[in-house]
Amino acid sequence: MPEAQKEQVQDDKLVPIDTSGESVDVELKESKVTPVEEEQEVVEEQQAAPEPEKTEEEKPSTDKGEHNEYSEKVNKRIAKLVGKLREAERREDAAVKYAEGLKNKQTDLETQLQSLNQNYASTMETASTSQVEEAKRAERRDGSTCCRTTSTATT
User: Fold this and answer.
1) Which of 15, 1, 6, 7 is nearest to 39 (CA)?
2) Residues 132, 133, 136, 137, Cα dihedral to 10°
3) Full-prediction pTM beyond 0.70?
4) Which residues contact 111 (CB under 8 A, 6 or more apart)?
5) Rounded Cα–Cα distance for residues 6 and 3 (Å)
6) 13-25 b/e with 16+ CB inside 10 Å = b?
7) Quick one: angle between helices 50-154 and 35-48, nearest 10?
8) FRET label pair with 109: which of 24, 58, 99, 125, CA 20 to 30 Å apart?
9) Shortest CA distance to 148 belongs to which of 133, 134, 138, 140?
10) What are phi and psi of 23, to 5 degrees?
11) Could you read off the pLDDT of 60-110 as tens digits, one per residue?
């Protein structure tokens, strides 16, 4: 596996070169690579690996912008729905209060009607009783006058 990683690292280090034009001979000196340097290169490669993760983190930051924008829209919709819900609750409470007010008014009117009926009945009873008594008195007066007239008439 380490050889495959080395080849991949070497392939990653290669840069495509433009080969058009005249050819030139270049001589390179051989450099002696010690195993410590190879280990350092592997460590450097491992340290380099987290860097692409940072670029991935940058992508979520653009996603965060989209997420924030989406969240704002969702929050607006939620706020709108909550407003409608509160308005409906307020209307419901107002309707309940109105209905309770009507019920109380009806109860008051019914009690007032009953008391008026009782007062009217007692007033009418009193009036009729007094009229009956007055009629009896009048009859007694008329009856005694009537009898006197008949008895005086015979005498």
Assistant:
1) 6
2) -140
3) no
4) none
5) 5
6) eeeeeeeeeeeee
7) 20
8) 125
9) 140
10) -90, 145
11) 555 777 888 888 899 999 999 999 999 999 999 999 999 999 999 999 999
Report which residue type is found at 72. Answer: E
Tell me the one-letter amino acid at 48. A
Q: Note the pLDDT tens digit of each residue in 10-29.
A: 666 666 666 777 776 766 67
| ∠ CA 94-97-98, rounded to 5° | 85
Rounded Cα distance between 151 and 144, Å, is: 10
Angle at 151 between CA 145 and CA 153, to 5 degrees: 100
**What is the rounded CA–CA span in Å between residue 133 and residue 129?**
6
User: Residue type at 15?
Assistant: V
Give the residue ranges of DSSP H helices in the chain.
2-13, 35-48, 50-154
| Phi-psi category of residue 39: left, alpha or beta, with phi > 0 → left and psi -120 to 50 → alpha | alpha
The letter for the amino acid at 119 is N
Q: Residues in the chain, how many?
A: 155
Comparing 147 with 79, which gets the higher pLDDT?
79
